[in-house]
Amino acid sequence: MSEQSRHSAAPGAKPRRISPTNVRRGRVLTGGVIALAMVVVLGVAAVMFGHDTAASDPGTATTSSGPTADRGASRSALFVGDSYTVGPSSVPDFGYPCLTATNLGWNCNLGSQPGTGYISGGPDHRLPRVLGALEVASLNASERLPRLRENFDADVVVLDAGRNDLQFGPIYLSNMFLYTVERARETWPAARIVAIAPWFIDDPDVEFDSDEGPVRVGPYLEGKLREVPENAAVTFIDPGSLGWFVGEDVSGLLADDGIHPNPEGHKRIAEKLTAAMIADGFGQLQ
Description:
By secondary structure, this protein is an alpha/beta fold.
């Protein structure tokens, strides 16, 4: 049975536009890519993490060098994303992806690299290598999938990217987003695919500026996703439409850079993402 996300517009939400003069939210790591990357480094450049979180609390999850297929009957989730999904201070066990996986009783695997997205980090948009930070060649999300498939036999694949791609505009972003979704479906044909709209904890409902006027990123990408019949079973989660953090003072949930979530922010995001996953039929809290 095909599934689609359940969400409704949140009253009082005020989308923020992404334009050439307002690109801070359009790219998590732009001109400051080196500086910010070095903040979340030392291990981040190795884009693959394996964690057996299903049987442990977030603070004691252990790192595994082997694929999750070897860990028994527990379901495994793979999160593919950028520095948001890496976790606070490059501690993936405390990041919202692995906290969410723990909530749902899943093993947690990460395929994340700072500054990247569906476009960023890929051809013509490679990130510079930095000693002690980005020591491996950057790859966009779709380029990472073949290697991730060698390591992780995922039951659920969550694409959580696009924050670093907003400045490229709706057409280019949507084309690469759809391409990545297609590659994920082909790479893990038995897995359930989840796509999370680009968002920020202090700006969950961003907009593009286009010649036709402002375009909300989440609904735009979901509309393009649903135009492809093969994507009928892909779950789409739009934090902006769900009203995540709307009307809240999130200053206490942000890291010192004012962009990424701090540990408390990751916990709050995990609560909201867990609820959204359950609403879309992904099980119950453990």
